[in-house]
From TrEMBL:
Native species: Cephalopterus ornatus (Amazonian umbrellabird)
GO cellular component: plasma membrane
Residues of the signal peptide: none
Subcellular location: Cell membrane
Protein's UniProt name: PCDC1 protein
Stored InterPro entries: Cadherin-like_dom (IPR002126), Cadherin-like_sf (IPR015919), Cadherin_CS (IPR020894), Cadherin_N (IPR013164), Protocadherin/Cadherin-CA (IPR050174)
Amino acid sequence: GQIVYSIAEETERGAFVGNIAKDLGIDAATLSARKFRMITGSSKQYFNINASTGALSVNEPIDREQLCELKSVCLLNYELVLENPLELYRMEFKVLDVNDNSPSFPLSEYHISVPEFLSPGARFTLPNAQDLDEGANSVQNYTLSPDEHFHLEMQIRGDGSKYPELVLKKALDREQQATHRLVLTAKDGGNPPKSGEVPVIVTVLDTNDNAPEFEHSVYRASILENSPSGTLVVQVHATDLDEGPNGEIRYSFSNTTSADLQRMFLIHPHTGEVTVNGVLAVQRPLLEMLIEARDNGAFGMSSTAKLLVEITDVNNHGPEITITSLSSPIPEDAVPGTVIALLSILDKDPGENGKVTCQIPDNLPFQLKPSLQNYYSLVTSEGLDRELISEYNITITATDLGSPPITTQKTVWVQISDVNDNPPVFSADAFDVFVEENNPLGAFIYQVSASDPDIGENGRVSYMLRNSTVAGSALTSFLSVNLANGSIYAKRAFDFEQLRSFYFQVEAKDNGSPALSAAITVNVYISDQNDNAPAILYPTSQNGSLAVEVVPRLADEDYLVTKVVADDEDNAQNAWLSYHLAHASDSTLFQLSPHTGELRTTRSMRSTDFLKHKVVVVVRDHGDPPLSSTVTVGILLADTLPQALPDFDDSGEPPPLLNATNIYLIISLACVSFVFAVFLLFLAVVRL
């Protein structure tokens, strides 16, 4: 939208201009919340907006002449920017002129030399007054103080501009009056009118009665704004009917030509060539100068001509890119079409040289959309993913349509903020964990780890056990998990013989809102330890008595006496059993198979063999270290089963001659005898 206000210059501070909220249809109560701001290219902020009412008031009085110089229409352009949503309104303030400047003349006084012999009707150019006001408030008419020899007439140049001339209405007599003092008054059309005056001193001369005359009253020329110093603009020419020095003409700029223009251009005093002097640092497309031609008479006469120089624009200004508003960072879930930045692109060159095209690289998820005049909106064109690209350096390229074109680039840094759009991810679908039984309480079991490409709280992962049961008990009675790092610990010792394997699920959850989670299955396999000795199932003893096997007295060789049967609750090599004959009353009579546990005779029985035998069998597993169990078997040689089993404490073997007790008695007797002999020897020695 756009709205236009008109305001008189010099309006006092605080004066009401309008209600911007009402005029634009905006709710005034939302101005502050929507972060309104006024943007202008002016160096001063001339207006204020009341954030609560929307009232637009004067912040600083405007001097139209200082702001717009000689422009006929003085405009101030503002942009009102509102956010949430982003809106842009153009405001144009037309500054109306008031009659606050009086006409003034460039010099404090003017001197005119008039030959006395001139006839009535002779004309002399008078200076133009300058009034910074415009329109009716500018200079409208001139008056001359009453004098019997002169009166004032207004003349019109070829371009329609007016200038005053002093007209001789009565012949002069230098001998009677050599100097005439006149007052030239300029009045504007204001209400009330203002005026300015300057003394005009007329000196009566005796010579040189012809003034130079230009070929044209107005000269026109056109040059490029980047023309180098010394470039010829135009050559003026004037003629003087006088002869000799009175007909020799010198050219110069009139005193009414501004000092700035006199520095930009040079005029050759003899040839009338006007050339460029330095840089044409002007913003106006048309320059106006007055050239004076004066002869070299003793009392030189002069005339003026107007020179209009049109400055042809050259594409010497590049586009200017201004970031008016920027929203960064933006969330990665921003929908396509979200406005990120508002750009102002301006080229100071006029015409085609000031028209600009703007673009950004094609491989970005953004695009530029034209907004108001000279404004573009930078918006998203597709979805964003911070995990792929977390920031963008967007190069904006603006190129004008000049020849050759000028290109300007500006980089906008846009950061992408994280949204919790990624759940935690485990490195595998399941984990297999092997744990030895009889583990200590609090033993470390395993550490699960999940990654989350989000950042901050959205990427901070915590771990927990999902509710389940193991062997009829709650999972939490078996395991615990560290909330922060996923380390799993045992809360009890595992027993391979009771529980060989189980599985459970660990859930990883991020701290986003809403939180996202994932779960992993952990299979736990309990490894066996050799913690169980072999259990002998057969033969078994009852009530502390030996297991007795009856063998026929005349049993043949390789007769199966018995088979030792054992079991081990451990697994694998911890349960591999081997059988060994630890003791036998007659080692030549029996043999034991190490793998099957079968106890067999090594030869046929003889009538001379003892009737009772005792065998000790050791059953050993293959664990590390190995565990073993023993069983003692009593063997009775009999053809029939006796009614009462004999006592196998005495196996029927002859007692050994030297057993442990006998050895101890022999050693004791020898020691006593030795001590007694030594004592007797001692007594004998003493006696001797």
